[in-house]
Amino acid sequence: xxxxxxxxxxxxxxxxxxxxxxxxxxxxxxxxxxxxxxxxxxxxxxxxxxxxxxxxxxxxxxxxxxxxxxxxxxxxxxxxxxxxxxxxxxxxxxxxxxxxxxxxxxxxxxxxxxxxxxxxxxxxxxxxxxxxxxxxxxxxxxxxxxxxxxxxxxxxxxxxxxxxxxxxxxxxxxxxxxxxxxxxxxxxxxxxxxxxxxxxxxxxxxxxxxxxxxxxxxxxxxxxxxxxxxxxxxxxxxxxxxxxxxxxxxxxxxxxxxxxxxxxxxxxxxxxxxxxxxxxxxxxxxxxxxxxxxxxxxxxxxxxxxxxxxxxxxxxxxxxxxxxxxxxxxxxxxxxxxxxxxxxx
Length: 345
Prior knowledge:
By secondary structure, this protein is of the alpha/beta class.
């Protein structure tokens, strides 16, 4: 994947250019355009960057934009989940190891830094790094030199480091949970991705984008937003930001019974007036219960499949339900989906 900067990622009138659109960074609000401007400005500067922002604001997309708009665009981009780095194997994961370096080292292993040679390493949720992991990474950042575990020779690495966090790292430093010297290294340059609630009508632009994308992806009819839905989108607080909006639009594409999205089932299934009416007016308790159960199953499964990107095995584990039984329910409600491939902010 590469990005061309023919007329610049941001056009002269302030609207996002084609480069950012191709990188799934969509929006026209002032705060968002300012973030894009910063990304454009620092992408070509080969220095460490810290990306900050709440969960779901698109920090990895910003990191990818920094990579694909840089001279390193044709080299690897490697995301690193800091919370998943095993503390006892941190050096091996980052620097690699030689055969026989430790008991289970039956073969030589290239570390993340070697794999990303010439490219970019994105350390996601850097606040999750243990004190030992922070010390190891800091040592590499000082001169970009390292020694594979069990190796005799020091090696020079050529990677750009981008880190992200959804927490206040300064506060973590004050609480002695994060190294101040590592924070200084990370924030040589910085960019902040704004929360969706502060991006004005970007939420409508993104909602329409997701509706179109999911309709095409899952072979569903094109759907449009009801005016009341637009009002709700603009007033909702969006604690999960763009990721929350994306999952909501996926559910609506899968569950809406007509071509107009009204967003009446965003909470408990019984909050839908249509569902509530059945409780009041059905002739029998059994019929009302069946309707409510069906509404609950569709809403629950829609949210679950959106959260797991259609992965039935993962959905079964999260719901603690037998995979075969869960798959039957999914087919019963016509919710069989494939995994989404791309995201946008």
